Fold this protein.
Amino acid sequence: MRWSQLAGKDIINLHDGERLGRVADAALVLDPATGRITSLVLTRRGRLAGWLGLGGAVTVPWEAIKRIGPEVVLIEIEQRP
C-alpha cells in the first residue's frame, strides 16, 4: 500500500472506540536496518487538549494495527491516563 492511500485514513482504537487522529498526522518510526515502519507516533490535538492536560503523544506499535480498511485504520492498544 502506498503512503498516499494510507495517509487520509482515520486511526480508531478498538479498545475504547476513540478516534486518535489521521495517519497523515502521525510521525513514522522506521527501523534503520530494514526501512520498515516499527510504530506510529500520534500527538493529541484539539483546542482543549493542552489546556486540560490531555496533550502528549500516543505510540502505536505496528503490530497493534489490526485492520486497514477503505476509510479507517483499526488499532488495539490500551492507553494509559
